[in-house]
Write the structure tokens for this entry.
Amino acid sequence: MKIAEGLYMLKLGVTMSMGKTFLYPTLLVDHESIVLIDTGLEGDDQREILSRQFEENGVDFSQLNKIILTHQDFDHIGGLHGILEHSDQSIAVYFHEDERPYIEGEKELIKVKGKIMPSLIKLIMKIELIQLLEDKEVLNILGGLTVIHVPGHTPGNICLYHHKSKTLIAGDSINIMGNKLAGPNPIFTPDLEKAKDSLKKLLDFDVENIICYHGGLFNMNANHALKNLIKSL
Ligand SMILES: [Zn+2]
């Protein structure tokens, strides 16, 4: 689904602990970058769906050259290794510095006991670089994409804000429940108080579209709804 020029919301059908549901990764395209934000679950079928959705939006999946991970949870990073292994070109992988030991396979994922990701170093030939993100960093993608560090859901959890289209790519920091915006899911948020507090950073942004990884697009008076939600938490 096209949200704005160069900005698309994808939709992946998956089966998770709560049953069948959808995940909504984001695709950004400009003259030098084809960027996927979050990668879905692992598996060839997931990668094929991603590839098909790229094509439906007129984008060649084999030209993907950047992946941004909002955080370490497996529904966000599960597809990463498969995409890197199957790509013929190098792909830059971006994530917040506080997620590094988990995503690089040094520490077990904080919410999956005993789960250690395979080392990214093995795939280093395919990775142009691993770029560690910092709060307030502005990436030169599609005219400007700001990193917003919102710890709590995980230590290095981020949202991204696309300035031109006023789109907040919320990851798991904001969800949609029954057509309404909701905060982070308490079941999957180890430090809920910190997560709620982090959301205050979003008050600085003028938001017209919100893409929730769980829930999809929210664009009905989004700024007002977001600010009300944050004040109510
Ligand atoms: Zn998630």
Summary: The chain has a mean pLDDT of 94. The helical segments are 44-56, 74-77, 80-86, 100-103, 192-198, 222-232. The radius of gyration is 16 Å. The pocket of zinc ion is lined by residues 73, 75-76, 172, 213-214 (CB under 6 Å).
